[in-house]
Amino acid sequence: MMQKAIGSPRKIFLIATEPSGDHLGAALMKELHRRFGNEIEFAGIGGREMEEQGIVSLFPIGDLAIVGFTAVVRQLPMLLRRIREAVSAIVQAKPDVLVIIDSPDFTHRVAKKVRKIASSIPIVDYVSPTIWAWRPGRARAMARYVDHVLAVLPFEPEEHRKLGGPACTYIGHPLIERLDTLRPDAQERQRRDGSPPVLVLLPGSRRGEVRHHMPVFGEALAALREQGVVVEAVLPTLPHLVDAVNAAVAQWPVRPRIVTGEVEKRAAFRNARAALAKSGTVTLELALAGVPMVTLYRGTAMEAWVARRVVRVSSIILANLVIGENVIPEFHQEECTAQNLAPALLNILDDTPQRRRQLEAFAKLDRIMDTGARSPSEAAADVVISVMEKARQK
Q1: Per-residue pLDDT reduced to its tens digit, 118-165
Q2: Has domain 10-172+372-392 been given CATH number 1.10.10.10?
Q3: Which homologous superfamily does the CATH classification assign to the domain defined by 178-368?
Q4: Residue 157 · residue 170 · CB < 8 Å
Q5: What does pTM read for this prediction?
């Protein structure tokens, strides 16, 4: 039986709960608008960028900015209420396809319930959960409620294949669309090689990360100064964190220049000789910018206990995983001390074998992450359209 008339407008329901997902969703919507014009309708949950593309969000995505095991537990009642609201809206809308974007603590719970109630709605997952790092059984479980995964990391399709996951296509990481904003021009390269060297500090983009990481950042800078090392420290942050960051650096012996916003952050990357960064996507951003780094992560005692028992990769640094080699040093929990960080930073501020090894590895990324002539949003739209049209013809 044909589910929908082939000539009727396509209806897509999208869910994104964080700014990064909102950016991906908006780019996908823009590309689908370009192809279908007014013959496409959007509904769902998203932020400012998706709203600019036409979505009226079911509720503010700030409600769902939940990261970490303990945070999920604390906010579980609200999370369950929002899941019920999302499922109800999807089932009522009867979309041609549901696109869930990252944030698996929320989006996958929604997808499972939608599959049970309205099994004919195809589901595309944009950004794979980290099945390659922990809980590999999620891949096989996903195959029961996700029809296709859009992978932003080149090794993920093979991981899903090995683990029995859903169909998975590498579409490219959104960072590869913004390489020109990450890489220095001739003048910026002169500053990168100049003196004093620019050291970018990246403690994280959430209040808990700032609280956990800022003290050791200050201690590492103090240790460098005690050894006679002069740096120009730049700390990019977000507007809502400026007060917390200013309070944290008030007693530092070396005061960084604090900048806000994406434009200022990328300008700092283009000038930077090295970086001290919290683990996360920013490590891949720095690697693509050609900035050698030292990485760290401090979490709660509970998060550390869980991680030691479930993480199944040799590195938690995204850039290391994409490169396939642990070239970037990383210090976690009790290893995250100024006594460890300062010597590691010295090794990448100077022209050393450690610095050259990182730069040589970063030079491979363009080839490793290449998607040909198509942008990630174009490749994502190809898959979404294919899944949607296949379902419309049943």
Answers
A1: 999 999 999 999 998 778 899 999 999 999 999 999 999 999 999 999
A2: no
A3: Glycogen Phosphorylase B; (3.40.50.2000)
A4: yes
A5: 0.85
